Amino acid sequence: MENKRRLFLKGACATAVGAVGASKLMAAQLDTKITDAAVEINYALIHDETKCIGCEACSDACRETNKVPEGVSRLDIVRTGPFGEYPEQYFHFSRKSCQQCDGTPCVNVCPTGAAYKDPKTGIVSVNSWKCVGCLYCIAACPYQIRFINPITKAADKCDFCKETRLKEGKSPACVSACPTKALIFGNLKDPGSEIVKVLKTTPNYRSKTELGTRPKVFRIAAKDGEIKL
Q1: What is the mean pLDDT of residues 62-68?
Q2: What is this structure's pTM?
Q3: What secondary structure does DSSP assign to 98-129, as a single string?
Q4: What whole-number distance in Å separates Cα of residue 55 and Cα of residue 107?
Q5: What is the four-CA torsion angle of 202, 203, 206, 211, rounded to 10 degrees?
Q6: By the 8 A CB rule, do 65 and 173 touch?
Q7: Is 31 helix (H, G, I), strand (E, B) or coil?
Q8: Mean pLDDT, the chain, as a whole number?
Q9: 74 with 158: CB under 8 angstroms?
């Protein structure tokens, strides 16, 4: 039934998809359909790079929980280095996943509404049965983390385990699996939450903020790995 609905949508939207040009893709990156004030909860994540040891327990848990096929990934840990001199060399580990942007370039270019921002949680998700595989969202994402799931044939990416663990009242799989507590997940609207307390007291940064995407994956930078002049 879902395949039939998707085929219907694909045919119905073909004309609309073709009408959207590259200029719209660029302009959409700075557009926002849902403002901060519209969400009751606004989930975000901190990756503390000072605690990450690159064990990849997070990405393994993500794959198992969300049944992500081999060959594609919702979450990767990128290792850079080694830095320093032997025997005191070290590596730097960073998280590569959906940045859960408040300014949603992927949502803004989707011609079928498959990519959407949940007004109750602020989480950017994908309705796979609506996706026609046009690749517009993949082209619009400045973080290059979306992919076409080879099983569902729809766009896919991290949704903070919205459809698996979150609706059961559990933290995302990556957060629970981390052995060093390098990941903190919580509600930015709750001033008493751990994530808000950490963000207010610890220097942090986000990726590509100059694009106006307002990503909600915050990072606490590893002290090591910086270029020393």
Answers
A1: 97
A2: 0.82
A3: ----SS-HHHHH-SSS-EEE-TTT--EEE-TT
A4: 32
A5: 130
A6: yes
A7: coil
A8: 87
A9: yes
